[in-house]
Amino acid sequence: MGQTLAYGPESGAPRFFVWATKDPNSGNLDRIQVIKGWIEDGKSQERIYNVALSDERVTALDGSAPPVGNTVDVKQASYTNDIGDVQFSAPWEDPDFDSSTSAFYYVRVLEIPTPRWTTHVAVARDVEPPEGVPASLQERAYTSPIWYEP
């Protein structure tokens, strides 16, 4: 679980190959991201890189991604896999690599929206979902970190 890169600064920016496949009993995948963290001027910093997006969406110039959509039927506490992808795989290289700065990297995978557990309970009990609580959520999976030390 996790690892420190045996990597010298002369090797250039770290390169990873990321790959994720959906759980057969859950929602399709929305996106796969690499999260990078480091310390700068005594403060922790973090940056999220969208590596792959479903449904031919494209990352904006500012690094953000358009929403995947939402197929959740709140009245039935159901959803369809009409959006998203079954799997992603892509190479990624740190575009902001500084060989003099320690950093960590981990991968996060987001599913398409699916009904939140409170939505399932409300449907099972034939009551309205609770107010102020989202009816859907996007499940996530995380890898262990990979560390870079100069």
Features:
two-stranded antiparallel sheet; 150 residues; mainly beta; six-stranded mixed sheet
Task: Provide an overview of this structure.
The chain is mostly beta strands and 150 residues long. 6% of the residues lie in helices and 39% in strands. It has one domain (3-148). The chain contains one helix and ten strands, in the order βββββββαβββ. The strands form three sheets. Strands 1, 3, 4, 6, 9 and 10 form a six-stranded mixed β-sheet that branches. A two-stranded antiparallel sheet has the order 2-5. The longest helix is centred in the last third of the chain and has 9 residues, at 117-125. The model has no long low-confidence stretch (mean pLDDT 93).
Blueprint (SSEs and pairs):
Elements: E1 3-4, E2 15-21, E3 29-40, E4 43-53, E5 87-93, E6 103-111, E7 114-115, H1 117-125, E8 136-137, E9 140-142, E10 146-148
Parallel strand pairs: 1-10
Antiparallel strand pairs: 2-5, 3-4, 3-6, 6-9, 6-10, 7-8
